[in-house]
Amino acid sequence: MDPTPTLISRRSSKQIVERIMNAIFLICGITAVIVVIAMTFYIVISGWPAISKIGLFKFLGGQVWNPENSEFGIAPMILASILATFSAIVIALSVGVVVAVYLAKLAPSRISTLLRMVIDLLAGIPSVVYGLLGAIVIVPLIFDLQTSFGLPTSGSLLAAIIILTIMILPTIISVSETAIRAVPLYYGDASLALGSTKLQAIIHVIVPAAKSGIVAGMVLGVGRAIGEAMAVIMVAGNAAIMPEFLRPARLLTASIPIEWAYSSGLHREALYGIGLVLFVFIMIINILLNAVMKKDVK
């Protein structure tokens, strides 16, 4: 019996399945692009009218946020968001890379498995739980510092930074560890063969080789830190004043959920404007970090 027709039918069926899957993947990709473009247009169309009415420089540079008097300056919120995000990323990246190196190259298998389970558990905890723990544990600890300096004893920018650091740390550790494990073993072996110690090989060879993955983890951490709202609302104090580490502060993400329910007219349009500014910030950060990643790859 000639097997050729059977082979041809199997091959044609596989080609049909491949074409169907390619079409599904193409549709999903196009849908994702359309959704992103639609969101972008919606945010721009909704947020720009308020910015044009208030004035771009007055909106971005104004230091007073008082909707009752039609004063919509978001400079304190912008600075608070930048300080909180930058500080949290610096601390989390410094600690996260060290922990990732330990898990990937130094820790015994049992310890690394146990720590990895704990880190995965921390990554899955809802942000409101982090905010609750921060309000119960971290904010009261900072009260003593605020009292000693004669400051208002409430939430603070420092508490928000600590909470954001704890929240993004599991993501940075997981992605950085994966990147470090992906570095070929002969990189470290070659360094050891040239007389380096194990620690020198890790610091000068393995970690630089995993830089693109570490930067990817930082991108994810920045996205979560600058976009977090609930946990920040519970610990930051939510005062729209120029930020100081031990004083209450309000981040950009906090204003929208706090004031949305009772906003209307220009006030609601201004909240849309805050969303637009936040969207632009995230786009700029992602573009810059992606440019750094591409430069490292080249």
What does this structure look like?
This protein is an all-alpha fold and 298 residues long. Helix content is 79%, strand content 1%. It has a two-stranded antiparallel ribbon with strand order 1-2. 33% of the residues are buried.
Name its key features.
single chain, two-stranded antiparallel sheet, 12 helices, mainly alpha, 298 residues
The whole-angstrom Rg is 25 Å
Tell the overall outline.
globular
Question: What is the terminal separation in angstroms?
Answer: 56 Å
Structural class: mainly alpha
Order of helices and strands: HHEEHHHHHHHHHH
* Uncertain spans: none
Q: If strands are numbered along the chain, what order do they take across the biggest sheet?
A: 1-2
Q: Note the main sheet.
A: 2 strands, antiparallel
Overall average residue pLDDT: 85
Beta-strand segment tally = 2
Sheet-strand content, in percent, reads: under 5%
Task: Name the helicity range.
Answer: over 70%
| Count of helix runs | 12
Would you spell out the secondary-structure blueprint of this structure?
Blueprint lengths: L3 H51 L1 H6 L3 E2 L4 E2 L2 H32 L2 H15 L3 H22 L8 H25 L3 H9 L4 H12 L1 H17 L2 H6 L16 H8 L6 H32 L1
Antiparallel strand pairs: 1-2
Helix pairs in contact: 1-12, 3-6, 3-9, 4-6, 5-6, 6-9, 7-8, 9-12, 11-12
Quick gist of this model?
The chain has 298 residues and is an all-alpha fold.
